[in-house]
UniProtKB/TrEMBL annotation:
Keywords: DNA-binding, Metal-binding, Nucleus, Zinc, Zinc-finger. The lineage of its organism: Eukaryota, Metazoa, Spiralia, Lophotrochozoa, Mollusca. One of its GO terms (cellular component) is protein-containing complex. This is SANT domain-containing protein. The keyword Mitochondrion does not apply.
Amino acid sequence: MREYYEKVVPEIKKLREEKESKQGTRSGQGGYVRSDAEMEQIMNGLTDQEEEEKKMRSLSVIPPMMLDARQRKMRFVNNNGLLEDPLEIHKDAQKFQTRWTDAEKQIFREKYLQTPKNFVLISSFLPQKSVADCVQFYYLNKKDENYKQLLRKQNMKRKRTMTKAQ
């Protein structure tokens, strides 16, 4: 960008070259001022440098904003998956939810204790129920039925019979 601006405005190139030549003479001094005249010269150089920076800023091209003020105020509102009335949807889902008879519940419990969480196999013993029905039944009733405790009892019984057989 500097090369572009120096081609467009040749004064910038001259100022930069002068600045570089001034810095080259001052760099050999060791970093301290020896007289008031030298201090004044450095101060003038700094003010010239500040003026040059102001000039460069005024000459620089500021790109336009990506969005104007009205567009920045606009927000995206995502309504994907919005449920207008979740209670109504829940009621509709309960209408289509399959009912479980006591015999089906007993078969499910027995087969679950034989093969825990193998819902494909469990559903094969229940002709009216799908795998999804069995999964849903398990997760809706696992707190009430306490399947973990039933499994522990079942395993304890198996261990006892194994030790007696040995």
